[in-house]
UniProtKB/TrEMBL annotation:
InterPro entries: Alpha/beta_knot_MTases, tRNA_m1G_MeTrfase_C_sf, tRNA_m1G_MeTrfase_TrmD, tRNA_m1G_MTases_N, tRNA_MeTrfase_TRMD/TRM10. It comes from Mangrovibacterium diazotrophicum. The keyword Ubl conjugation does not apply. The gene is trmD. It holds the Pfam family tRNA_m1G_MT. This is tRNA (guanine-N(1)-)-methyltransferase. NCBIfam families: PRK00026.1, trmD.
Amino acid sequence: MRIDILTVVPELLESPFKHSILKRAQDNGVVEIHVHNIRDFSTDKHRKVDDYAFSGGAGMVMTIQPIEDAINHLKSQRDYDEVIYTSPDGEVFNQRIANQCSLYKNIIILCGHYKGVDQRVRDYLITREISIGDYVLTGGEMAAAVMVDAIVRLIPGAMSDETSALTDSFQDNLLSPPVYTRPADYKGWKVPDVLLSGNDRQVDEWKEKQAWERTKRLRPDLLEGHE
Ligand code: ADE
């Protein structure tokens, strides 16, 4: 998979992809992540990428030209499954969307900034708008980082233990069961006996029950539509 991110603040995305699973996934050739500075595509002599909104109003608007040129430059080299725009107006990102995106070959993520992009970018160039939650960020870069993290870990080969992505919270619309590690008894705080029993069937049953109970208690909304 290849992910191209377009931003006016590339510095914000210098670090998030350079560590842990995301770094390994890139080192192993599972994914390529490229961050592009939209300013590099501006034809303005001051590399301007924004302008005042017609009819006034507070805040600057990202202009079409550098964005269209950046997208066209990328599209001239390969086909893209989706051109995503990060925006609080978009459909709210979740595990289902992460799964869907993890199957794509190439995607572009355009990070919104200032007051957002000229509406014509959204009308003519964007195929999908995604929000990471009902709150407003100063820009779409953090949203892009969150999405890329959630997507990349689902690509086969990204995780050393591939089954662990399948047992995540939300993968079956259930939260994960609790996990424990050594010591089995810390100052009287004990690990449930069943986990020390060595009985795989009982352990599996316990985990499933815990997952259901936890979901019912913490996120009953996830169970709507379940038996
Ligand atoms: N840009 C600003 N707020 C955002 C959000 N909640 N999700 C995605 N992009 C954003």
